[in-house]
Design goal:
The complex is a heterodimer of chains A (114) and B (109).
Chain A (H helix, E strand, L loop, with lengths): L3 E4 L2 E4 L5 E7 L5 E7 L5 E9 L2 E4 L6 E3 L9 E3 L8 E8 L9 E2 L3 E5 L1
Parallel strand pairs in A: 2-11
Antiparallel strand pairs in A: 1-3, 3-8, 4-5, 4-9, 5-6, 7-8, 9-10, 9-11
Chain B lengths: L2 E3 L3 E5 L4 E8 L5 E7 L6 E6 L3 E5 L2 E6 L4 E6 L8 E8 L5 E3 L3 E6 L1
Parallel strand pairs in B: 2-11
Antiparallel strand pairs in B: 1-3, 3-8, 4-5, 4-9, 6-7, 7-8, 9-10, 9-11
Classes of the chains: A mainly beta (114), B mainly beta (109).
Amino acid sequence: NAGVTQTPKFRILKIGQSMTLQCTQDMNHNYMYWYRQDPGMGLKLIYYSVGAGITDKGEVPNGYNVSRSTTEDFPLRLELAAPSQTSVYFCASSYSVPLNYEQYFGPGTRLTVT
Amino acid sequence: GQSLEQPSEVTAVEGAIVQINCTYQTSGFYGLSWYQQHDGGAPTFLSYNALDGLEETGRFSSFLSRSDSYGYLLLQELQMKDSASYFCAVTGGSYIPTFGRGTSLIVHP
């Protein structure tokens, strides 16, 4: 199993551009998550999904959108990129919580907005 | 809402034992998790406590006291490779984990 994969690994965007961060998992997990991590900080939840067709906002959703058309894929869309969105983005997945609590993380996407 | 407090940095020498504390506030409680993250890497799962007491996994142990809203991660026989950030995460009534800001562990030779 590849686990959780994310593309791209690195990206530089200009202010106002848009892009989609891709996330795929091959573990048949119901739950998927998008986090951002700023330097020296913890993980802040942007959006999450409890299954195909179901998404919900996390702590910091402004400026982002998600969709979940399949169990495997959970892309994160940035519209009108701003410098404040410079961060490392991690996608994660898990079985249904709270019975199965371990989250599996992808390698991250390092995004710079200038 | 949910919130967590953990020290920002802990230092120790190789071979020693170190304890990283975590206190939390949450509406409803299902469990407390610990994750390790090396510089530039993804967080990886270490342990989970749903009930009071100590869970041991090799050199790492995790403790939970639900009445005190408190837990800790205990690392024994420290090695240089244990230098990393350690995050506690609480799963409350929303079923979605909330992460602390992380503790940077620096292990000296």
